[in-house]
Amino acid sequence: MHAHAPNHFKFRPFFGLTVAIALSGCAIGPDYFRPASTLPEPAAAVATAQVPVNPTWWTLFGDAELNALVDQTLAANQDLQAAIARLEAAEAANREAGADYLPRLGLEASTGRSKSSGETYNGRKQGGAEYDSNRVAATLSYELDLWGRIRRSNEAARAEALASRFGRDSLRLALVGQVANEYLNLRSLDGQLDVTAQTLDSRKQALKIVQARLNAGSASDLELAQAESALNGAQAQWSQLHRLRALSESQIGLLSGQPGLKIGATGLDKLPLPPTPPAGLPSALLEARPDIRQAEERLVAANARIGVAKAAYYPTISLTGLFGSESMALSNLFTGGAGIWSAAAGLTMPIFDAGRTGARVDQASALQKEALANYRKAVQTAFKEVNDAIVGLREYSEEEAAWSAQVGASQRALDLAQKRYASGYSGYMDVLDAQRTLNNAQLLHLASRKSRLGAAVDLFKALGGGWVAG
């Protein structure tokens, strides 16, 4: 047993040397560098600024029910659960790729009985024989990563795992934005229902006045028909808004994983407007967007796979080893003379593969170009969405102020029209026109406020989250 030890230890320096060579080798293929920015110069100049991000940006609306719906969505939405499962699979694939850095150790054991032929050339000289064979051995196999194939594979696997993580974060951001926007839509419909209820009351009262005037002989059947038509229109408007609210409520239930969800009615006036972003903030927060980071990690992975494909041009060197015991008799399996060992280095190298390796390199290079285009598009889209959201926030603010002023003026016009009609100074059409104008102004005012709040949600999403107000 000891007689074999020196040869076994001679293998160790050889193994250590080859490992050192492998670790010091260069990785084939291009190293990754972040592409140059395609954004306008002022934006690119501040894109690396460190700006604090508020991960719970929806809380800036100050609505406890919205906060609860978002929490429920993050806990129970099935699309998000699927994204989490994909992330777990990607992380497991990354761990699997990392295992190639280390040797594979195994244990094999076998026992059997064999009989050799007595009719072969050797068998006729030696006679047939029956014998037992018992074997126990530890095995080792290891691929030297001289050209960086394993390193590039691991680089790609790590990037894919990160891309899955950012994909989950991107879906999470989109889901929260959907819930917030749908919640704002629901509250806008609540406000519109409240306005329509007031309009219904007003037109019911107007119908009573017209009926009384008709009975007194101071109104016509035409005025009665106009009053009835206006009331019926308001009732149809109420039914339509009630249907839309039910659909909105159902959509929130789907997003938050709560089928049959019921949400109490309230208005948009309870929701405060979030703070206005400081100047220069959009560009500074672009890098926080998970979809941009996901696109970049996919570019990293595609870049690394070029190296994996190119490594096939070079020889693969593998080390194998075995150390154990073999004996005909089980009782002699672990005696000194039963020891066995082997050590080998193998090399394989392609000579002619009809262009397969070159085709794979071309495929990897083309996929890298596609990933680069997708990354640049993600950055440009993010910049556009941020600017659009800021424009919307500013313009909707001015629009809401204008509609608010019109609501006040329309209310005064209706009061005057009703007084003039009651005094006989004007016809009922003036009252109807004033009612329609007020109703439309109130609904448009609610729509503009909802759009203004929605623009704030869009800005949060476009920035990859909120900002921490200074």
The SS-based structural class is: alpha+beta
Helical residue percent band: 55-70%
CATH fold field value? Outer membrane efflux proteins (OEP)
- Count of all domains: 1
CATH domain class name: Mainly Alpha
For the record, the CATH architecture stands as Up-down Bundle
Radius of gyration: 38 Å
- In round numbers, the mean pLDDT is 82
- Spans where pLDDT lies below 50 across 5 or more residues: 1-24, 43-50
Number of strands: 6
- The percentage of residues in β strands lies in 5-15%
Summarize the biggest pleated sheet. 4 strands, antiparallel
Count of alpha and pi helical runs: 11
Assign an overall shape.
elongated
Sequence of strands across the biggest β-sheet: 2-3-4-5
The H/E string reads: HHEHHEHEHHHHEEHHE
First-last Cα distance:
76 Å
Q: CATH H-level name... which superfamily?
A: Outer membrane efflux proteins (OEP)
